[in-house]
Write a structure and sequence with these properties.
Blueprint (H helix, E strand, L loop, with lengths): L2 H13 L2 E3 L4 H6 L3 E5 H5 L5 E7 L5 H12 L5 H12 L8 E6 L3 E6 L2 E6 L1 H6 L8 H9 L3 E7 L2 E9 L6 H10 L3 E5 L4 H11 L3 E3 L7 H12 L2 E5 L5 H6 L2 E5 L4 H6 L2 E3 L5 H17 L1
Parallel strand pairs: 2-9, 2-11, 9-10, 11-12, 12-13
Antiparallel strand pairs: 1-13, 3-8, 4-5, 5-6, 6-7, 7-8
Helix pairs in contact: 1-13, 4-5, 7-9
The chain binds adenosine-5'-diphosphate (ADP) and magnesium ion.
The site of magnesium ion has 8 residues, from helix 3.
């Protein structure tokens, strides 16, 4: 690679909001065969809303929501903001939880008002021996719509299933189409359920889906994609994406993302617009053609 063409490419990148943090980023991007995306906040808006509640046992919606939202108040996950907002809309005063624990990749637990709460994915309920049979169909329906099913158990019994919807960004479908037109394969990596992930990937036309990936499993998922399909670029925004951004052949962070993600990346899309991925690949090809 001639220094001059790299300099020109870097300058052109800056003009289009593609910040190259590593000197060989364009060269490696030119070799990419697959572009893998984080789901939440990267392909989706990352601002989920509570769209439905189904109750079990004798719980009424506000009593259940008050306890669940009190626990979610301690969580950093986008799902927590959706549930807190719903409790706020219902005008609920939230009690203080005790013994809060975040169960990474599964959900949350705490004691609230003398009740034991467990909130999270189906796999959390399975792990804790809570029977979810009554809600299997509801969870399947939610998943098919691309919604995340959130199970809530109170005192060891299923109390509710909440549907949380995080719409895909307006730009996502077009970006996936354009990557395919550029001859690349696409993939999505997420901790969300298989059904939800499959529905979102289907909406977007994504080729490969790695779902129910535990937080420390993103790197392994990425390596599996690399082994099967070749050089991988990974696009992400969150703190939990930093290891994958660093491990990917090319890490691309959204400028709207967290500082930790940006620092782990080779390329930063300043405006946070996903179309920057397509522009960066176009730029890498133009630059490498000049070099050869
Ligand atoms: P992702 O970033 O893809 O959502 P996570 O590892 O953060 O992956 O979460 C995996 C799954 O664990 C979520 O899809 C959700 O089902 C469950 N979960 C995590 N945090 C929470 C929370 N605060 N409330 C409810 N469910 C949660
Ligand atoms: Mg994310």
């Amino acid at each position: 690679a001639t220094p001059t063409s790299i300099m020109v490419g870097t300058g052109r990148g800056a003009e289009m909001g593609v910040l190259l943090r590593k000197g060989d980023a364009l060269q490696r991007l030119d070799e990419a065969r697959v572009v893998a995306f984080d789901k939440t906040g990267t392909l989706t808006e990352g601002r989920p809303r509570l769209t439905g509640v189904t109750l079990a046992g004798d719980w009424n919606e506000d009593d259940m929501l008050r306890l669940v939202a009190a626990v979610e108040g301690q969580s950093e996950h986008p799902i927590a903001r959706a549930i807190e907002a719903a409790a706020h809309e219902h005008g609920l005063d939230l009690p203080q939880p005790e013994g809060f624990r975040a169960i990474s990749g599964f959900g949350l637990g705490a004691r609230v008002d003398d009740h034991d709460l467990l909130i999270g994915a189906a796999r959390l309920m399975e792990r804790e021996g809570i029977d979810t049979g009554a809600f299997v169909e509801r969870a399947t329906e939610m998943g098919a719509r691309g919604e995340t099913p959130v199970f809530a158990a109170i005192d060891g019994q299923l109390a509710a299933i909440l549907a949380v919807a995080d719409p895909v960004k307006d730009t996502s479908r077009k970006v996936i189409d354009r990557l395919h037109a550029q001859g690349l394969q696409t993939a999505m990596i997420t901790g969300d359920s298989h059904a939800t992930a499959k529905a979102i990937a289907g909406q977007l036309g994504i080729d490969h889906v790695e779902s129910e990936v535990l937080p420390d499993g993103k790197v392994a998922a990425l390596r599996a994609l690399r082994e099967r399909h070749g050089t991988v670029a990974f696009v992400g925004d969150g703190i939990n994406d930093a290891p994958a951004l660093a491990d990917a052949d090319i890490g691309i962070a959204l400028g709207s993302g967290t500082d930790v993600a940006i620092e782990a990346a080779d390329i930063v899309l300043i405006s946070g617009d996903l179309a920057g991925v397509v522009n960066a690949i176009g730029l890498s090809r133009a630059t490498m053609r000049n070099i050869r």
